[in-house]
Amino acid sequence: MSTAADAPAGAISGRHLVVASVVLYRTPMELLRPCLQSLARQHLSGDVRLALAIMDNDGGSSLPGLDVLLEDLGLSGKVLVCLAGENVGFGRAHNALFKACGSLMGNRAWLHLCVNPDSVYHHRAIGAMVDFASSRDFQGLFEARQFPREHPKPYDEQDFRTPWCSGCALMVPSAVYESLGGFSDDFFMYCEDVDLSWRARLAGLDCYVVPAAIVHHDVTRKERDDAFERKHMLLSGFRLARRFGNMAFAGAMADMLRQLLDPEEMRSLERWGCGVEVLHDNTGGGVADFSQGFNFAKARW
Amino acid sequence: MIALATFTLPVSGLVSVVIRTVPGRTSYLDAALFSLQCQDYKPLEVVVVYQGPAGADYGGLLDLLEEYRVLGLDIRLVVNPANEDQRSRNLNLGLMAASGQYVAFLDDDDVVYARHYVNLVEAIKTSGSAWSYGNTYQANMKFAADGSLYVASYSRPFEKHAYSFIDHYLGNFIPIHSFCVDRATEIGAALTFDESMIRHEDYDALLRLSSQSKPAVSTEFTCEYRIRLDGSNTVLAGTSDVGDFKNKSKSWAVAQLQLERTRDRLDTSLWNREVFAEIARLRGEVHRLSLLVNDYGGVQCESKPLRYRLSDKINSALKRLPLAHKGMRRLGTRMDRVLESLRRQIVARRHRSAGV
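YS: structure for the whole thing
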């Protein structure tokens, strides 16, 4: 399902257009409400316009409730794209949203903002991200600072460069998104943001944390399915390592996955591993860091 | 500014969070308010007690509060125009303005996690206690080039998963924003801060509170005590300027003396149970180990008098309660040494028996 054609023309006006892109999968509306409310109440300067792009990865099961919520928050007129389909994971869903937005934009540039549905944006966060990205000529990946518990990966306190950007609150200029080919289809969930960041750095771009943009993302309250998350974490770790030529890390992931996957799944994964295009040799082009486990950079604490 | 005159019954279920602030701290306060905006607990009201001149827009404070009101936070503002440091009075002003059954405090440069008040209220409800506390991270903050604060590291100096009167007597491990008081209880309703104190005012109040009611504990870490490593907090940590350090040290020393007076006046009948239990535990341990030593022979003649000597010391310490807590700690340390010595003797004797 797509409502792209219904998008109001005014939604894509403005000097800087930010498309807040949200991927849902059986997301409770009470969790989504604070997130969308925080988008609705952004303090934006006159030259920044905010639109929404939404993908329901559960075939549209959330859409009836979503319609009511959008109406209630006064956001119905800001929906540029609304898609529904099977659960293709995080990266592919964002790629689909980016493509659908692109079909509406023509030659117009925009800023694709990955919005986690359990995050809440400070009312000046998006404006701060646009200002920061603008000061870097929209060259790079731009991540909001997570709050209250910051992400442990480091960033430079002078120029705010960071080894990779988290996909939780990530702003990618459309030209950059396009030049990198978006998120890799190889990942279902986890590590697709690390992969995108390292490819950006290989292409000569930088990854940044925007310190003035804070986004509430309290991972301590998340209800976890540990077995599911562990499996997908290991799968993504394996795929990332193979793509960046780190056979030792991939081997460690494979050893653990053998305990979790049935033999056919494991053989399929290994076939994928043999056929995958290695993006860089085992040095990772100087950008990949597997020495710190799943932090993928030396943590601050 | 609001009038503080009549006392009304607290609103059932409402959490009131009192925040003290002074001029020039709106950037810190912004983060504190944002953390309140994202609380899972509802209903919640915020009482901001501003001490400073009420000129213009109070240095951006009014605008900031209005922004959060629009975002849905229920905020009251209390203004205290006094010039001198009235941090304890500011807390009392906040208490008077607060209308909630539950009251909590948040310094303007600290933050709480989304489940903080859900956990604290739940702990009170399930325990029947008049108050509760949760665990606190210390976040060590640095300034980045753009003036923003970021977390350089975390530590856990306040970690305490089970409340201990003795440990609390010896030092505060409950920062001001980590606890919540139920004012529907008689004990909670009586909560006030000693306005003569300009440091340790929260610890002083907590000692008095805990002498009447043992707190419930939420073991999860749900808030951050944010220390700026440039030394601009009131705590001594990070202070490199000699003059600042001396002034701060003096304030803390004065407060320490005031605390000693509070400790002297405390009704410690509740606490004594824990002290007795600890003594009984230590005595039992000494007895058990002494018997073990005796089993291996050799030190029997020395161990009996030692046990009697220890018993005498314990009994003498008991007679001096409630002032004996420090003495208890020293005694405990001494007993630990004795126990360690006994353990060493056992190990040595085992080795000898085994022909090592």
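YS: worth flagging: The two ends of chain B are 79 Å apart (CA to CA).
IM: good catch. Also The interface with chain A takes residues 31, 34-35, 37-38, 40, 67, 70-72, 111-115, 142-146, 148, 150-154, 220-222, 224 of chain B (CB under 8 Å).
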